[in-house]
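Phosphate-binding protein
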Amino acid sequence: MRITVGFPLRRRLGVLMLMVLLWVVACQPQSPEAPPPAADASSSEPVSLLGTGATFPLFLYQRWFSDYSQQHPEVQVNYQPTGSAVGIQQVMAGTTDFGASDVPMTDEEMAQVEQGVVLLPVTAGSVAIVYNLPGVASGLKLPRSVYPQIFLGEITNWAGPQIAAANPELTLPDLEITVVHRSDGSGTTATLTEHLSAVDAQWRETVGAGLSVNWPTGVGIKSNAGVSAQVQQAQGTIGYVEYSYAKQLAMPVAALENRAGDYVAPSAEAAAVVINNTTLPEDLRITLPDPEMAGAYPIVTYSWILAFQRYADAAKATALRRVLAWSLTEGQAVSEDLGYVPLPESVTQRVMAALETITAD
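Structure:
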């Protein structure tokens, strides 16, 4: 299969931006290159926290942890965007101070963590369907009977009748469709595949949902940043990334037909329709595979911090509680600008209560 690659000026700028993003993600240090600034007599002792996991909330976590450390230089947070599957695995292994995942841990996974686990939904967002089509910079609509069939490899040409019927105002190119999907264990993949399983019986019966699935077609790439780069470079591609990546990189996104029959493009506002009208259960674990609200974007998820319930180091327990309390309050103010959903006050209060259950041995 041949993938046509074009590089007009605007696309070269986009690719350059992606190269910078990938370099930043790849070069995150395992520990701060310089020691944290010396604390004055009234400050706490320096504390370093290591986190790892989901790439979905990367832009928000980078902003939160950087801003917090500027205000509280005695605390340094090093977050590694390794994917939700690795975040869960490292919490189970006890090799990180906290993990992060776009899917909540299961009872079986939590039972294997000797120190106990506290699941904290600290943000929410959506999974955008991104594409690269010459002459179609915006306005693409995909019916819910169509986009699962694209990801199944059943619809293979952009000018096919199923896509054309939903887009009479667009001039769609006679171009082969190339699906770009994640190759690593991914909460973004889990969110998408849960949705596809909810709306398409063939997908549900042949592929299913999970952090990793056996994709029936396409090219596998690691991380949200990697999928973004591949789609930006190769014409005819379609992929899926957390909306903040599409927003930051100005990538074309498809408007999807939701359960109410509306075509809705991804945005923080359209995801908030879901989050603001959904009640979290007592254990703060929920999936939202096919929301029914009018005006709702259909692929939405919370994203969780996976904290230990008991820490051997009291300073780390205290620092993590303070960082996350700040993120749940002051930090929420930057969410929407980055493409995420600020938590409703009712959710914030419940997560703050759960945060207080974190203790030290």
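Residues 9-26 form the longest helix (18 residues).
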